[in-house]
Amino acid sequence: MDEIAVGVGIGGAASPHAVRWAAARAAHEGARLSIVNVLDEAALAGADEEMRRTATSLAEERLARASEEARAIDEALPVETSLLFGSPTEMFADISKQVSFLVVGTDWHGETRADRRRMQSLRIAAASSAPVAVIPDFDVSRRRGVAVGIDGSHASDRAIAFAVDEASRLGAPLIAVHAWDIAALTGGDYGYGAVPVLDTDDLERAADGVLQEALAPVARAHPELDIQREVVAGDPVHVLAEVAQRASLLVVGSHGRGTLARFLLGSVSHGVLARLEAPTVVIR
After folding, report:
1. How far apart are CA 218 and CA 212, in angstroms?
2. CA 69 centroid distance within chain
3. Strand order in the sheet with 249-253
């Protein structure tokens, strides 16, 4: 049986949203749900025994509430809870090697961006070996549509497959987005290598072709799916974040590369997680 892990104790107000999202996904996949709370040993350094007992008790209560929230989604859902001690980033990186999906709540909220000490959700997303969802602390139940960034790369092909499955599960439209600008096209950071200088009309036609080619097999395999196509000139992070504001979910592929890939996301996936306008899934 596949297993989806969801972290609690990281995202504060976002944690219940993350648990419910993970439970719904696990129920859909027929997967087991593992609810994990990692108490940061660095934060507990110097704490006396009473403080440690208090922290442990609060963590256990948090796990119990999360388990109830998960079973409220599906009473038959197999749920297990774990309380671990260590570095949250390192512990969840290890967990991600053993599960099919990892879910965490964001650790910054509303209009206030976290300082560098409160970026665990981004670090965990970057370190994860499994696909990862970062869930915000606001309700998106009134939104419709699963948005996916498409750039013609293998990473975006995997993102499309996930987005199609989620849109089909929700009975929601698939919002397929391809954003292009000169920097993205020549820098190779959004799935392209260097290209010859082309005029705007040629670039628009090329961009539309990328989207049409990626979506052709989807349309054939899922004729019932409402596919909304958007080709937009602009910075991919800005374009995807704007679309995410009206979507119930955003899905992107990660272009983290090289020997540091375990600790890096591509600039687009990092950028949309930093803005986090909707629950966002990053597919490696």
Report:
1. 10
2. 20
3. 79-86, 32-40, 3-8, 101-105, 132-135, 280-283, 249-253, 146-149, 174-180, 227-233
Task: Look up residue 245 and give its DSSP letter.
Answer: T
Please tell me the pTM assigned to this model: 0.88
Longest dimension (CA), the chain: 68
Task: Give the Cα separation of 31 and 34 in Å (integer).
Answer: 10
Distances (CA, A) of 144 to 183, 222, 234: 31, 18, 23
Query: DSSP states of 247-262 as a string?
Result: -SEEEEE----STTGG
**Phi, psi angles (nearest 5°) of residue 247:** -105, 160
Write out pLDDT tens, residues 15-45: 999 999 999 999 999 999 999 999 999 888 8
**H or E element that contains 94:** helix 88-96
Which token pair is 247?
């979507």
For the domain 3-135, what is the CATH code? 3.40.50.620
Amino acid, single-letter form, for residue 235: D
Closest CA to 277 of 249, 255, 235: 249
**Residues whose CB falls within 8 Å of the CB of residue 141, separated by 6 or more in sequence, listed in order:** 248
Q: Where in the chain is the domain with CATH 3.40.50.620?
A: 3-135, 146-283
Tell me the per-residue pLDDT of 227-249, one tens digit each, with 9 for 90 and over.
Answer: 999 999 899 999 999 999 999 99
CATH of domain 146-283: 3.40.50.620
Report which of 276, 284, 278 is spatially closest to residue 122, judged by C-alpha positions: 276
Question: Could you give the C-alpha distances from 222 to 156, 161, 215, 282, in angstroms and in order?
Answer: 18, 11, 10, 23
Find out whether 165 and 251 touch, Cβ atoms under 8 Å.
no
3-state DSSP call for residue 81?
Answer: strand
